[in-house]
Amino acid sequence: MADLHDPPLSWSTRLWFAFACFFRVLFDPRFAARAWQAREAAAALPPAERAEPQKLERAREGGAAPAPEAAESEPAPKPALAPAAAPGVSSALQLLSLLQREGRLVDFLEQDIASFGDADVGVAARMVHEGCRKALRGHAKLTPVRREEEGAKVTLESGYNPSEIKLIGNVSGSAPYRGVLRHRGWRADELSLPTPVAGHDASILAPAEVEL
To answer: Which of 62, 66, 96, 135 is the most exposed place for a label (fewest CB within 10 A)?
Structure first.
């Protein structure tokens, strides 16, 4: 868990991270459940602890260090870390624009479907799925992280890559781990996006349409 005194993320990093989490929450039920639990845990914190990150960020933006409320509660200084390079936001917006153009993804997500019947939602979801799948397969090459079929028994030896494999369930002890493959994972081997023309505004995901 991040420390409350870690330096705040830049705006571009927060935008990219929000975009990535949006799709993980939408398509990964387990990730969505963990995100919800983290939200509930943050809401349960005392008001003083919830306000601490905002106080730190405001102090850093103003160029001054926040005054400690009590000398004994002041944390030990942490070594300065070089900030990670922020990923390109325009590429994420380009991909979202393609999903909107081919599958009307943004229209579907922004539509209030609470009053629609299950059959109507199912028809719309099928159309969005077909269009978004076409856009994704036309511009990205995806391969499974694991080649085994889901439900197969697997063994993870010591030294496995934790960025490729996430342990779930009752995790204890050390490798080798023996379990059941619940999701094969996905790896983006290639991503080919159109080259923007001069003057293109990447923030416009879909232009407004006016019929004459």
So the answer is: 62
Mean pLDDT of 55-64: 55
Q: Which tokens belong to 23?
A: 């799709």
Q: Is the pTM of this model over 0.70?
A: no
134-140 contacts: CB < 8 A, separation 24 or more? 134/102, 134/103, 135/98, 135/99, 135/101, 135/102, 135/103, 136/99, 138/102, 139/95, 139/98, 139/191, 139/192, 139/193, 140/188, 140/190, 140/191, 140/192
- Quick one: pLDDT at residue 71? 46
CA distances from 191 to 76, 108, 194, 196, 205 (A): 43, 24, 10, 15, 19
> Which residue do the tokens 């342990």 mark?
167
Residue type, 94: Q
Which one-letter DSSP state was computed for residue 72? Answer: G
Distance from C-alpha of 194 to C-alpha of 91, rounded to nearest angstrom: 10
The pLDDT confidence band at residue 118, using thresholds 50, 70 and 90, is very high
Residue 4 falls inside a structural domain: no
Residue span of the structural domain in which 35 resides: 11-62
Residue at 184 is within a domain: no
Task: Tell whether the model's pLDDT for residue 205 goes beyond 50.
Answer: yes
User: Tokens representing 78?
Assistant: 């942490």
Same domain as 96, residue 54: no
The answer to whether position 166 is within a domain reads: no
Structural domain includes residue 198? no
